[in-house]
Amino acid sequence: MENMAKITFGIVLPTRGVLFSGADPKKDIIELSKMAEEFGYDGVWAGDSILAKPRLDSIAVLSAVAGVTGRLKLGTSCFASFPLRHPILLAYQWATLDQLSGGRTILVVCQGTPTQHGRIYRNEYDAFGISPKEKIPRIEEGIEILRKVWKEDNVSYDGKIFKFKEVTVQPKPAQKDVPIWIASNPRSTGELEGAPGNIEANFERVGKYSDGWMTTMVTPEEYREDLDKVLVYVKKHGKSQSEFKTSLYYNVNVDKDKQHAAEESKDFLQKYYREDPSGILDKWVAFGDLSDITKKLEGFIRAGVQDFNIRFVAWDQMEQLKRFNEILPSYQ
What we know:
With about 325 residues, the chain is of the alpha/beta class. About 45% of the residues lie in helices and about 20% in strands. The chain has a single domain, classed as Luciferase-like domain (TIM Barrel, Alpha-Beta Barrel). It is built from 13 helices and 11 strands. The strands form 2 sheets. It has an 8-stranded parallel beta barrel, surrounded by 8 helices. A two-stranded antiparallel ribbon has the order 5-6.
């Protein structure tokens, strides 16, 4: 499939980075968002995790950003606590955000890091009294519930996890149809919690339940292979492949000194994930001068990426945005 769509660029706000960098959240969240809009970016994105990877709350952050911007799309990248949050409460909160922003939101949900990955991920689910095996049904049912209560009144639902009768959520979102995407990467998650041994089901879940797909930590060739699988199920479930959004969460460090860019990226990711990223640095990060960055971006565009969520794995976020902005005019 030749990518003919406009390439869009969003900035991932450092909602976790500000906790360990000592940066001023007002500068690195609010001022960065205002500058991104001024420079012509398409959106800003906020990651999400409650206990496992602590950060500023994504809904609160996006609400603050909504008040100082007028055009940027406001999204999550990704909403890892979705299985932990009750969909009725989330529907109420997200509809409020959509109203305040004038209908600019995109909700990107995911299952988060598998709890087998470490104690901090398991403790998060234990603290909420939720079994990790419920992750997948909570995602599927949660998406169904959001769509229903955002459009209808007196909604009843009888699912495996959630059961309720005659619920009306007000306000409704400003958008007629709030975009809901799913972020997933079967290559890194292996067996999915709640759906062991059935990786193909992950591709179908994206095609069946979502309006778009976000992934990360892949080569252009892997992205193309996985996208082709997703689009099979998009078509199977009666959706338009041309209207289905395809997105890549990608790390960038713009620096003429390529070695310094690599070292700073490694330091940032080490603090962020508490793991050594050396083995995946070249695959997951575009680092170096503008020609180095552009070359990697072009590879993903040829593979079908329509939307980039750029996270600057560097300590000076404002300076990175200014440097990366030299690339943006080529895609506008």
